[in-house]
Every structure is written in C-alpha cells, then in structure tokens.
Amino acid sequence: MLLRHTTDKVKERKALTVNPAKTCQPVGAMYAALGIHGCLPHSHGSQGCCSYHRSTLTRHYKEPVMAATSSFTEGSSVFGGQSNLLQGIGNIFSIYDPDIIAVHSTCLSETIGDDLGQIVAKARTDGKVPEGKHVIQAATPSYVGSHVTGYANMLEGIVKYFATNTDKLINQINLLAGWIEPSDMKELKRILSLMGVNSVLLPDTSDVLDTPMTGKYTMYPKGGTTIPEMVSMGDSLYSVGLGEWGTQKAAIALDNQCKVKFSIEDLPIGLKATDRFIQTLSKVGSVSVPESINDERGKLVDAITDMHQYLYGKRVALWGDPDQLIPLTEFLVDMDMKPVYIVSGTPGKSFDKRMKAILGDRVPEAKFKNGAAADMHLMHQWIKEESVDLLIGNTYGKYISRDENIPFVRMGFPIIDRIGHSYFSTMGYMGGLRILEKMLAVIMDYQDANCPEESFELTM
C-alpha cells in the first residue's frame, strides 16, 4: 500500500517528523572528513551509529567508506567515553597509520556531555598522537541540524585547525565546497583550470569516493585536500564559499583567524547561479572569462531555448538540501517551469527569504518550508491537494512517484537506487545541460507511456 493512506489535510505539527527530508549530522561530518587526504573519520559513539553513517555513504557512493568508532558500551553510555576515545586514538595511529583523525560526536556522547576538545588535548598530552600526526574534532549531535550542518561543523573544525597565516600572501583563492558530489568537485576544478585561477578546494572528495577499480585496495586514496594545501589557506588572497549552509561557518572562521576576506555564493547550479560564480572567479582571480566557458554557456542557453515548449508551465516538487534547492529553484523558474512545492529538513532562517525572492510573483501558488516539520509527509500531502508534473529529489521520493504516477529525477543525497551522480556533475553550464536532459528524459518517457496510440510520435 506504500503511502496511499496519506491524506490531503495538512495539520500543523510541532513535535512529530514523518519521513524526514534529511539525514543526521555525523553523516555530513564523515563526508567532509573523507575530503581530506590521508584522513580517517572517527565516530565518538556506539558501533551502531558508526555503521549507519558508513552504510549511508557507502550506499550512495557505491564505494567502501572507512571510519573508526569509540564503540560505546553500557558503561561508556553512563560514565562517558573518554577512555574509549583515548585508547581508540592510540590504536588507530598504531594500526591504520592515517595522517589525520577527524573525530565527530554523536547523540550518545553529546547527551553524556563528553568534551571532545578536552579529550583530544589529553590524547596529545598523554603522547597518543605521534609527531607529525593530527587529530581534529567537531560537535555533531544528531538531534539538531542535519547532515548539511554536520558537514559545515567539520569543515569549520578543519579550517580552524590547519589554516595558518604567515603574512606572506599566496596568489590563490580558497574555494570552500558545500555538500556536493565527487563529480561536482571535479567539475569545479575543471572550471578553475579553464579560468586560470590558482586555488585550494576544501574539501575534495574526487578521487576518494569515485576511485577506479585497479585490483588493489587503498585505504587512503590519492584524492583529498592535502595538509600543506590546508595550511596555505591562511595566506590566500580570498575565500569563496559555495553554499551558505555548508560553508559560511568555515569562511567566517578563516576570516577571524587569518583575515582572509570572503564571499558566499550559491552552488553553481543552472544558468544564473553559474553566471554569478564565473563572475566572482573572474573578479577575485583577476582573470578574464575564456571563450570555452562562454561556449558552454551558449550551449546551455541553446538547449533551454530548443526545449522550452516541453518544460513551460510544468509544476515541480523538490526536496533536499537548501544549498542545492535555492539555485535549482532559480534555474527552474528561469526555464518558465513552476516549482510549487519545496521542502528541506535542514533548518536556517534565510531559506524563506531566498525562496520568496526567487519565486515572487512568478510562482504565487508556491509552498515551501524548511526545518524539522518540513518532511516527505508534508510534501505528499501538498501533492495530494494538487498534483505536479515532475519530482526532483533524493531516493526517498520514489514512493510518492510510484503512488501518484509522477515522473521523478533523482538529485541530492542520498541516492541509493541509481548510479551516475558520483561520475556526472550537475555543476556549471555543462551540469545544467545534464539536469535539463534528465528532466526531459523522464517527462518524455511519461508522455510516451501514457499517451493514446494516435498521439504516439517518433520525434519530439
């Protein structure tokens, strides 16, 4: 029966979330840590928590995700996990030999009141951290925020620990990546290369969670931001954060600690957001926009023009992370589509303001919400009230797609029933083309499957 009993009567809920449009903070912290070269994430909590975080990432990226755990027992759960973490740090360096251990907390350790900073400092005092090795930490209780805020907290912890100002400016910019795919990080580096902008990308999960099969297992793949690169960020000319939710805390920390000025841009999804990103790179990097980038923009504009008749007026429901939803919604509006229902489980005060600015009078019927009560149940209730032509979001929307017979494009996190997201980017102008192609494919497939015989056409 799946979700067929969902009603169209929306009632205000304050203490109940049904099918949340998010995952928990430690998942994000673990993903951010994997974007550092030679880093082993460590979950300070129970084995079950760590297993869930690892399995969620493994299912999405189809790659083995390595992480350690403090393995809380009943005693640790009552009296605290300091001894577990101290012993764990010593064992990890002895057995697995990472360059960095990135410790994040969980509900259990946060509820007990474990002070990660104090425990890590004691590990150094007790000689459990070998010379030349590093331990960083971030507080990420699962009962607040989401995987995006956990990612942001770990990114902030990385910057605070490594970035160093020597008063010797380096001709480079810091590019702080919000929660995006390894393929997206590769695309960002390609764009930076075409623009001729020297940069440090943090974190960088490309060549970490999209590695080739060589027949030989490597616990620490070749990818990831290196320690010298992270240290050098304190002497960069400027920082650009991609996504307010994922990067603003780290950008502020860099400014406070090393006096590196910054701006926060939207993830370059679609036309206008990519335009702004390219213009920012041109300005802060003091470079001109190459013809190859202009050509890519022209191809996207051409495809939008050609396909406008099939997308015009299509009603769309979206869910996922705010940093992705904001530019994606803008992209849909630019193509004269109607994003009418938008939910994100990640809290944040500026979500309403941004959505109102994007939708304005162009989609007056739009409903949007973020935070704990913005869940997939609310999304389905809205769709029950008045249906849509297209769904865009993570795998958990497939139940609504099946029950309501609505075309579905998978974007965001997690995607556990399809592949491709790790290898094909949705960033930049070429990523916009991919989004356009994916939407058209499911819309036209639906049309072919449901039209009468006399309307079944060979061409678009």
Helical residues, percent? 40-55%
On the 0-100 scale, what is the average pLDDT?
96
CATH superfamily of the largest domain: Nitrogenase molybdenum iron protein domain
Taking pLDDT < 50 over at least 5 consecutive residues as the criterion, the unreliable ranges are none
Rg result? 23 Å
Shape: globular
Architecture per CATH nomenclature, i.e. the level-2 architecture of the largest domain:
3-Layer(aba) Sandwich
Order of helices and strands: HEHEHHEHHEHEHEHEHEHHEHEHEHEHEH
Task: Outline the structure in words.
The radius of gyration is 23 Å and the shape is globular. The longest helix has 23 residues. It contains 17 helices and 13 strands. Strand 9, helix 13 and strand 10 form a beta-alpha-beta unit. The protein is α/β, with parallel strands linked by helices and 460 residues long. The chain has three domains: 138 residues, 3-Layer(aba) Sandwich (Rossmann fold), CATH 3.40.50; 119 residues, 3-Layer(aba) Sandwich (Rossmann fold); 163 residues, 3-Layer(aba) Sandwich (Rossmann fold), CATH 3.40.50.1980.
Feature tags:
460 residues; alpha/beta; Rossmann fold; 5-stranded parallel β-sheet; 4-stranded parallel β-sheet; 17 helices; 14% strand
What's the topology here?
Elements: H1 25-34, E1 39-44, H2 47-61, E2 68-69, H3 74-79, H4 82-95, E3 100-105, H5 107-112, H6 116-125, E4 134-138, H7 147-162, E5 170-177, H8 182-195, E6 199-202, H9 227-232, E7 236-242, H10 244-258, E8 262-265, H11 271-284, H12 291-311, E9 315-319, H13 322-334, E10 338-344, H14 350-359, E11 367-370, H15 376-385, E12 390-393, H16 398-404, E13 408-410, H17 428-450
Parallel strand pairs: 1-2, 1-3, 3-4, 5-6, 5-7, 7-8, 9-10, 9-12, 10-11, 12-13
Helix pairs in contact: 1-2, 1-7, 4-6, 7-10, 12-17, 13-14
